Amino acid sequence: MKYLKRIADAQLKLRLEAFGAVQIKGPKWCGKTTTAEMQAKSVVKMQDPDRREGYIATIRTKPSLLLKGETPRLIDEWQVAPLLWDAVRNTVDERQLKGQFILTGSTVIQDKEGGIQHTGTGRISPMLMYPMSLYESEESNGKISLRNLFDNKSLNIDGIKSKLSIENLIFAACRGGWPASLHDMSNAAKLLIAKDYVSVICDEDISKVDNVKRNPIIARLVMRSYARNLCTLAKKTTMLADVSAEREGITISTFDDYVEALERLYVIDDVDAWSPAIRSASAIRTGKKRCFSDPSIAVAALGASPKTLELDMKTFGFIYECLCMRDLKIYSQSLGGVLSYYHDRYDLEADAVLHLDDGRYALIECKLGSSDIEDGAKHLLELKDLVKQKNASSKQGKLKLPDLLIVLTGGDIAYTRDDGVKVIPIGCLKD
Fold this sequence. Notes:
By secondary structure, this protein is α/β, with parallel strands linked by helices. It is built from 14 helices and 13 strands. It has helices at 7-18, 32-37, 52-61, 83-95, 146-151, 166-175, 187-208, 216-228, 236-244, 252-264, 295-302, 306-310, 313-334, 373-393, and strands spanning 21-25, 42-45, 73-76, 101-105, 124-128, 144-145, 337-343, 349-356, 361-367, 404-409, 415-416, 422-425, 429-430. The strands form 3 sheets. Strands 7-8-9-10-12-11 form a 6-stranded mixed beta sheet, with helices on both faces. A 5-stranded parallel beta sheet has the order 2-3-4-1-5, sandwiched between helices.
């Protein structure tokens, strides 16, 4: 299979130009190693069964020996031997050269864990990767660029069409953005990738992440509860009650432990709240929006399928929002931005708020069907008006008005409404 270009390619190239080493992190199977290999000149794969013991013995004796080779040198799954972190950091300091190493891994290693003595600040630049967006998997035609929209608000998008039907969109969400699922195989085989991913996480990785034995059954229940509350502001106590209904005796500390392990594996990827000073602090909800790094994880955790979701569009609406959040997170990285959400106790909301590092931002609603576009646009316009009202009454610093109002839809045609809200099919979007 040919290598499908990733948005992360350009980010990695830039970071190698600016730093001595780059750490690519993210969920397993999302393509970190393949992306790194496209720019690496030499490779050490720590999980190679034929060489692993030899590598580990070398690291115990003199870790710097493993770092000799043509650069950039890729150390794949470096967390197998955390001592490599300090060795890379030290070698970068000694060489005083850029683009020396690429580290890849699928778990978060805490400072001081496994012998790590120093952070990599200034030497090792962290870079997060996700499974593939619809644009990267070539399912979005990419005819509408977020970057171009920010740079030219009057850009004409009217009439641009998506090739993705609702059925195609459902299948893409169930299959997920896993590169292996894009190989030439049957649809049933493609859907098996996400199911197997969830099984491996629950049966093996959730205990391997920090060598703490955890129950696969509880892991599945926690993931299923997250999936049931996908893209909502559900409290931990609500999800704990959901888990406890099927398995008694689970405490909040146990629940937190499993969630933290799933976060360290980049399975859970919650969205933070945007809390601008336009309401009283008590009015704005600041809890995390529950999310996975890929919508297919939720589908697999629920035991759903394209056929069942075609008959349950309400559930798919939440999975669709998770898909949109995944793609927006990927696109925002390319734009140097961050993603959050807004929701207050008056039910005024924006499913996503995309902030660029230069202060510009977009308010975004994710609406699957055309019947919901009006409701989404109404929320966005009300939020914009609220900012205007706050600015008019405030004698202090003004809050910048949103640069873009966007309804991301599962429909097939893009247009700009008379009120300025842009309606964009997710199947037309790119960074």
